[in-house]
Amino acid sequence: MPRPISATLSISALDNNLQVVRRHAPHSKVWSVVKANAYGHGIARIWQSLQSTDGFALLDFNEAVLLREAGWQGPILLLEGFFNPGDLKEIDRYRLTTSVHSHWQLAALSTFEASKPVNIYLKINSGMNRLGFHPNEAADVWGQLRAMPQVGEITLMSHFATADSPEGVNWQVDNIEKGTQQIPGPRSLANSAATLWHPQTHHDWVRPGIILYGASPSGSVQDIANTGLKPVMQLRSEIIAVQGLVAGDRVGYSGRYRAEREHRVGVVACGYADGYPRHAPSGTPVRVGGVQTVTLGTVSMDMLAVDLTPCPDAQIGTGVELWGDNLPIDDVAASAGTLGYELLTALAPRVPVIVK
Ligand SMILES: *Cc1c(COP(=O)(O)O)cnc(C)c1O
């Protein structure tokens, strides 16, 4: 018998979430962001369910090659561009669209002999200060690219730092507009948060990631409650042991949970080596046999403990939902001081995945 943990991926939820994106941005094309192995879901497992997308965006060459070799013929965007000049051969060979964010990349492109023009995403640093050219340089850089015969279509791209918070996007939109008003051609600005909440940023292509997988860009599930988004991943396991505690008994490493009364504790086959956050404190929500309860004590590598007080019927073999349809991953993440993004991308390879 395998260990009873598994992650189930819902194809219909993915499909639904892409439709939600289309409803929010009806006039834009969609880059479905599948970096980090499709936010932990597995590109190979899910890309066909997103085939009605207009393109896939990611940043690892091996993921781009995987998509091409699996049969995807449409656009693929390298969000971080190329990492050394030699990568341009692969970009040409696999017909990838590449972001360009630094001067060395311009130089590399200018001497590259492409078999057909390479489509470029010219990255503007509008305030996040990770990648991109300052808006003041944008027109100059655009001109250099436009003069290169090996360059095809040039799209202006920028990324938002605060699209999920009250600060919003206008401060960055202002920066972009100042430097790029004279530049023709398509634009791509919106991540998930801007796709949902800032329609003025949609332009030609939106770049949603986390919402395709049904989690909240802000970390708060209330913020996506009325969107129709559905979680794609259900992480499930089972109770593999039950302990009857009396007052004073402790549970797990460091004895961090101490019982104040007599009650039962269930031991669940799921730990941090499965991707469950070790920093989730006692009190993190979890569902046992369809009843909401909480974790107790320190999460171990392979196990965690749950309070069975609200679950008198629970016993060895009772099903446990760590996150999924009935328990938003955002709530688990919030308790652990992180985001659904981190939990999804941390799903461990040892967890068997079922695609439904
Ligand atoms: C990851 C990423 C996205 C998608 O972000 P979400 O918040 O998951 O929607 C979009 N654009 C760029 C450049 C990214 O790196």
From TrEMBL:
It comes from Rouxiella badensis. Belongs to the alanine racemase family. Pathway: Amino-acid biosynthesis; D-alanine biosynthesis; D-alanine from L-alanine: step 1/1. The modification N6-(pyridoxal phosphate)lysine is found at residue 35. PROSITE patterns: ALANINE_RACEMASE. Gene3D superfamilies: Alanine racemase (3.20.20.10), Lyase, Ornithine Decarboxylase, Chain A, domain 1 (2.40.37.10). Keywords: Isomerase, Pyridoxal phosphate. PANTHER family: ALANINE RACEMASE, ALANINE RACEMASE, CATABOLIC-RELATED. It catalyses: L-alanine = D-alanine. Substrate binds at residues 130, 301. CDD domains: PLPDE_III_AR_proteobact. This is Alanine racemase. Its EC number is 5.1.1.1. The keyword Lipid metabolism does not apply. It comes from the Bacteria. The active site is at residues 35, 253. Catalyzes the interconversion of L-alanine and D-alanine. May also act on other amino acids. It is an enzyme of class 5 (isomerase). GO terms for molecular function: alanine racemase activity; pyridoxal phosphate binding.
